[in-house]
Structure formats: structure tokens, C-alpha cells
Amino acid sequence: MAGVSRRTVPELVTLTVSSLVLALVIVLLVLQIAAGNDPARPVVTVGAIVERGEGGFHVPVSVRNRGDRAAASVQVTASLTTGATTVEADQVVDFLGVDETEELVFVFGSDPAAGELAVAVAGFADP
Amino acid sequence: MTTGAAAATAARSACQPAGGQWSREVTDLARATTGALLFGIPLLYTMEVWWAGVRATPPQALVILALALVAVVVLNHTSGFRRTRDVRLADAVADGVEVVGLCLVLATVLLFLLGELTLDTPRSVALGKIAYETLPLSIGAAVAAQFLRESRDGDPGEEASDDDAEPRDASSATLNDLGATVIGAVFIAMNIAPTDEIPMLDSAMGAPRVLALLVASLLVSYAIVFVAGFSGQSRRHNQQGPLQHPLTETIVCYLVSLVVAGALLWMFNRTEGPWSVSLSHIVVLGLPAAVGGAAGRIAI
Questions:
Q1: Residue A11 touches partner B, C-beta closer than 8 Å
Q2: Residue contact A28–B127, C-beta within 8 A
Q3: What is the domain partition of chain B in residue ranges?
Q4: pLDDT band, very low/low/confident/very high, at A25 (cuts 50, 70, 90)
Q5: How far apart are alpha carbons B186 and B193 in whole angstroms?
Q6: Can you spell out the DSSP letters for B61-73?
Q7: Using one digit for the tens of pLDDT, what is the confidence trace for B173-189?
Q8: Residue B240: band (very low, low, confident or very high) from pLDDT cuts 50, 70, 90
Q9: Could you tell me the pTM of the whole model?
Q10: Structural domain spans, chain A
Q11: Residue B47 to residue B129: CA distance in whole angstroms
Q12: What are the start-end ranges of the E strands in A29-84?
């Protein structure tokens, strides 16, 4: 190790800082491996409904993957039942990494507050 | 120990003043950063690489980092980023750790500037993206000394002869620099201009990040030409001419790089939106153009 011992002080400082950075990244990755390998678990959260005049009623929906593995082709469905009428819509999120969140907006012509709104994850693929 | 190894180690550990050692280390790190950018910036602007990082599992990311380290150690034996060649395995490994550590930081900063990392990015996604961008950046850093006619201590002094050369005529030097900037900027930015990455990045960045990228582009451009210790650096510091002061040259050549970026975007029909959006696109493409332009001024 004579080669290392002859490094100058600035080189040793750079080596120390670089080693710490590399070690930090490795530790974070190892912690993630140790955290588990549960399947993807996309869950939806409905936000506050906003009326946009002629643009209809916007329903913001967050879909977040709370599992330990990624999910692909996550299908999110929303249905609004007002009286005897049911309006359905769906969107697909191409890819959802671990702990990643995608924001979606569903648009309905009638006020969701006056009916029954149901938003759910219909399915996903294991990439 | 071989004679070459002894000479290399002696050259590295020669009794220099502390200030000289720090200056030399900064120069070496600037050279490594230059190599990393020249090789890695096209992949930094490639969405498939971001997606590969997003999809990477932690074991995959660890393997990518291990590959980067092994590749850099091997390259340090033949090239490296320092003026002295790493003949000993221990030096090659130590420099390899430095390169990978430096490129981890560089990838993080650049991905953050480009909006591909934010404070809300999940940890696994961030680590995957950083690992995948660190690999090409590290390879570029590890061959930095071979870029742009760099000469090493103990080698026949190509740099010395270049630096000792008579300063060129002021007007021809200025014209040469502007022409070299255009050629270098086209060389790097033309690969990126027609792709969808520029509007994608721009839409996610926002004005503060675009401004920060502009400042970073100027700093990188200055560092490549006037700090990284490539051939002709001393001559460039002493060059006479209306645009030859380091700061003036950096700013003017950055503006030329922006013009090149704008022309390339126009050529590929990427400037059809409002002027403010087009300007923002130009600044986003301006980083690779500035890196190419700076390299062009050294190479030509």
C-alpha cells in the first residue's frame, strides 16, 4: 500500500470524501434490499374536487406504489353514480416505481358531490 | 517497483508547497469532470437511461456501481484523469474510488439541475437514476487524460511545447476560438437537439432550474478551458485579443453555443412554440453545446 501512503494531503482528502459518498450510496442500497421484497401495492387517494365551469368537475387522484417492487400498466378506474346513471372512466399509468406517486385528473360532467364516486386500482402488471 | 512506477509515484508525491498540491488536485478533479461530461452528457439527456434507473432494483444498482468501479480501475491503469499514470494497483483503486465518488456527486447535481431528481423523488428511484448515470460519467472521467492531447509528467512535452508557442495573432485567435466553439457545440449538441428529451426536461425544470443550468454551463465551460489543465491552457491565459480574457471568452463562447443550440433546434422544428419556451429549450441544450464548444476550443 505504499502507493496509497504517498498520496498528497489533497488527494487523501478527496479520497476520503469520495469513499464516504460511495459508502453512503452502498449503505442506502443495502438498506433497500434489506427492507423487503413485497409485491407492488398501488393505492389511490382522491383529492379535493374542483369545478372548472364548462370544463366540468375535476377530480384529482394520486396513485402511489407502497410496495417494495415496481408496477407497470397500473389501471385506475373512476365511476360516478348519480341516480340511475353511472359514468365510468379509466386511466393507465405506464410505470410506477417503488414509493413513486403519479397525479391523475378525472373529469366528470356532473358534480361528484351530488352522487357516489368510486376510485380504485383495477390492476397492474409486474414489469 | 518498475522505474516508471517509481517516477510516477515520485512525481505525485514530490515536495510541493501545500497550495500547489491543492491547486494540482483541483486541476485533476476539473479534468476528471471534463472527461465525465464529454463522454456522459449524451446519456444524461437520454430518457431511456432515466427509465432504466427508475426500473432498476437495488441489487441491479449495486451491480452497476460495481461495474463502474471495475471499469474505472482498469482504465486508470492505461489512462486515468491525473497527470501521472497509475502504475500500481493500489493507486488505480484509490483513484477509481475518487472517480466513482466524484461522478456520483456530479450525476446527482446534474439530475437535480435537469429536474430529473427533486426533493420528492422516492429514494429507490433516485438511487437507480444516479447509479445509471454514474457509469458513463465514470468511464469518461477515467479516460480524461487521453482527451484533447493532454500530456503527462515525464512524457515528451507536447503540452510544454504548446504552451511555449508564440501567442497567435489576436484577431485570428479570436476567429479560431469562435469557429472551434461552433464546431465543438455542433459535434455534441446535434446528437441531442432532434430528440424529445429537450422539451421533456424543460417542461419539468421551471425557470429557477433553467437559470441554475445557465450558470452551471458557464462554470463548466470556464473550468474545461482554463482550469482542467488541458493542452495550451497557459497560452490561453496569456492570449491577446478583444475576446481573449478568460471571463470574456467564456461568456462570448457560451453565447455562441446558445446560438448553435438555437439553430439546431430550429433545424429540427423545435422552436415552433412561444419564444419564452424556445429560449428555455435553448438554455437546456446550451449545457451540452457549451461543453462541446469548450472542448472544441482546446482541440482545434
A1: yes
A2: yes
A3: 22-149, 170-299
A4: very high
A5: 10
A6: HHHHHHHHHHHHH
A7: 788 889 999 999 999 99
A8: low
A9: 0.80
A10: 42-125
A11: 10
A12: 42-46, 50-51, 57-65, 71-82
Query: In this structure, are residues A82 and A117 in contact, taking their beta carbons and an 8 Å threshold?
Result: no
User: How many residues are listed for chain A in this entry?
Assistant: 127
Looking up cell 385528473 gives A105
Regarding an ipTM greater than 0.85, the answer is no
Q: What's the CA gap between B295 and B300, in Å, rounded?
A: 9
Q: Which of chain B's residues have a Cβ under 8 Å away from the Cβ of A14?
A: 25, 29, 98, 102
- How far, in whole angstroms, is CA B163 from its chain's centroid? 22
The values of phi and psi at residue A42, to 5°, are -70, 130
B59 neighbourhood in chain A, CB within 8 Å: 33
Would you say B288 and B219 are in contact if contact means Cβ atoms under 8 Å apart?
A: no
The Cα B287–Cα B216 span in angstroms is 8
Superfamily name with CATH number, domain A42-125: Lipoprotein YajI-like (2.60.40.1620)
Provide the chain A residues 94-113 that lie in CB contact (below 8 A) with chain B: 95, 97-101
Grid cell digits, residue A90: 379509466
User: Roughly what angle, to the nearest 10 degrees, separates helices B89-113 and B3-13?
Assistant: 50
Of B289, B226, B228, nearest to B255 by C-alpha is: B289
